[in-house]
Amino acid sequence: MKTLMINIAFVLTSLLLFLNRYTALYINNSIIHFILLLVAAISFIFIAGQLFGKLQTTKSRLVTILIVGCLCFIQSFLTWGGDWKTQTILYQNKVNFNKTIEFQMRGDRFSFGYKKRVINRLKLFPGFDWTTDVDTAKINSRQWKKVNLYVNEMKFDSN
User: Fold this and answer.
1) pLDDT digit string (tens) for 25-34?
2) C-alpha separations of 50 from 39, 47, 125 in Å
3) What pTM was computed for the model?
4) To 10 degrees, what angle do helices 30-51 and 58-79 make?
């Protein structure tokens, strides 16, 4: 039963991380992303440990979890580019209110300034979005309502 749970955890978390990396799925919360990475790494190590007959004691499992946790934290810290934050909701879909066209910004970690993008965002459920680039010059006014709602998730001074 434990082996099945570990295998399921590995498959699900690895699949979500793979989809986040190679498709338009976007995990919009760095904590959720870190937890998925941690569970995928720990479950992979436990599967390999079972395969090779290692990690038999509770102490060895705890030490492994601590080491993998530290390594995942270091990897996340060094590679995390920052979360995209919505500054303005430009358009809202007239049929599906979870679908918006947004102007987003992200702080550039190792240089000064911000990265910017305009995306079509479909909110799947908390922490997960489906995002695609969009050209605002080609917006169909029958599908989209212009809202220009200033959200300011970057918390800029509005003076």
Assistant:
1) 999 988 999 9
2) 16, 5, 34
3) 0.86
4) 140
